Amino acid sequence: MTRKIGIIGDGHVGSTVAHYIVTNGFADDLVLIDKNEAKVNADAIDFREAMPNLPFHTNITVNDYAALKDADVIISALGNIRLNDGAKEDRFSELAYNSEQVKSVAAKIRDSGFNGIIIAITNPVDVITSLYQQITGLPKKHVIGTGTLLDSARMKRAVAEKLNLDSRSVTGYNLGEHGNSQFTAWSTVRALDKPLTELAKERHLDLDALDNEARHGGYTIFKGKGYTSYGVATAAVRLANVVLSDAHTVLPVSNYRKDYDSYLSYPVVVGRDGVLDDVSLNLTDEEKEKLQNSADFIKTNFKKYSEK
Question: Which pTM was predicted?
Fold first, then answer.
């Protein structure tokens, strides 16, 4: 079966996503779309010139929304990173611009006849994912955001470094908004086959500091190089591969939560048909309150911009 992926937005993140896909042969057909025609065409040529030295071939189409009709997955990486004031550390600084771009793009996706899975990276990702679903009319389970898949990875990296472990040896989730209202659900985190709350006492770990590091890790990167790319691109491609391979993998992604009437990050089973099943976490009362606060924040902002 031919695997086809569309990427909308060929900036720092979109081009990193595309490079990861091409160099690893994750798609047979790749559709690249960006308003900057010179940039997206240059990247397409660059990828084609990489192929003689790669073990894989990828067919590349540029700026053709009609080519998205039979795509399996569309990854939205559009945005304008210059709007993100790293000093304020607020992804909602991008919302006014990105929401207008998404309204236009989502209508073109809808009109193309696309019927696959949308994966949103564009910030603020929970609100943007909601907008994509509303405008395309796709089933809610088919529109997913990378959400705290990235933040959970940042938490695992921070915890693993304190314990001198490979970050893949840490399990658990950050939940809620991919933004300032997110939180590490420490009740879900384990390492060395122990709950991290128990390890924290033994190893004198500062859980608040680790939570803060996960929440603000993106801004540390942003201040260093002016954007983030590798972490979120890898999260998006992992999610796309889970869909393409129907892997039935549990991931903390932004998905529609009926009990909160909002998109937010909470672990679900993901496969070829998008969100396949729910995961029930035994959260503490404090964590449940934080999740509700995060949902309320996302809903308020979605309503503000979806009605414009």
Answer: 0.95
